[in-house]
Design a protein that fits this description.
Layout lengths: L3 H23 L8 H13 L6 H22 L11 H13 L8 H9 L1 H4 L3 H13 L24 E4 L2 E4 L16 H5 L9
Helix pairs in contact: 1-2, 1-3, 2-5, 4-7, 5-7
């Protein structure tokens, strides 16, 4: 039976080896996604946090996304248009957003889960891509204009305040005005009618 120090040393050695492999990949020394590189994604998916340099991991995530989308589309090339935008337009936008992260996003664990075992969760391109888009953009569909996300409905009367998510302005759905009924004030004058001002003779 291994002792705890030996186990910790093995784990440390494995992590050091993965760092070197990732560095080589990020520097262009390795072109193919090896099983060791995919194990890095699995490691982040399991830990929930990154133990690797973000810029290097970002390169791996981007490349893995390219490979996953290509594999889905080779199997089934069918995609759909959403509000007049085809799949390639949306794909390029997600790629752009992904490359603009200066530090690991809080959705990193879910990103790596989807990229490590994509077909465990989704069987076609669109379902996978919409799920992955949320981890990058923070919204269901990364449209250029947020108004495209909503169904085209008549404008409501009272708008709620807006908020920002990952740099994208979003507004909450408008709600119809609610007419409030006011109870009449109860006072002594209510029973006798309006009082007259007394005048002096």
């Amino acid at each position: 039976m291994e002792s705890a120090p030996d186990s910790a040393a093995d784990e440390s050695g494995l992590h050091t080896a993965r760092i070197k492999i990732l560095e080589g990949f990020a520097n262009g020394k390795e072109q193919k996604l090896s099983p060791e590189l995919r194990e890095i994604l699995a490691d982040v998916a399991d830990c929930g946090a990154s133990r690797y340099a973000w810029k290097q991991l970002q390169t791996l995530i981007t490349r893995r996304l390219e490979d996953v989308v290509a594999a889905y589309r080779n199997k089934d090339a069918k995609t759909i248009e959403i509000d007049g935008e085809d799949f390639d337009t949306r794909y390029k936008r997600v790629m752009k957003f992904l490359q603009e992260f200066k530090e690991p996003p809080f959705t990193l664990q879910r990103m790596c889960e989807l990229l490590h075992e994509p077909e465990r969760y989704y069987r076609n391109t669109e379902k996978f891509f919409l799920a992955f888009s949320k981890t990058v953009c923070g919204i269901t569909y990364p449209a250029e204009h947020v108004s495209q996300l909503r169904r085209r409905e008549p404008p409501k009367k009272i708008p709620k305040r807006g908020f920002k998510s990952n740099g994208i302005d979003e507004k909450l759905e408008n709600i119809p005005a609610v007419e409030e009924k006011q109870e009449p004030l109860k006072s002594s004058s209510a029973a006798t009618g309006p009082q007259k001002m007394e005048t002096t003779a």
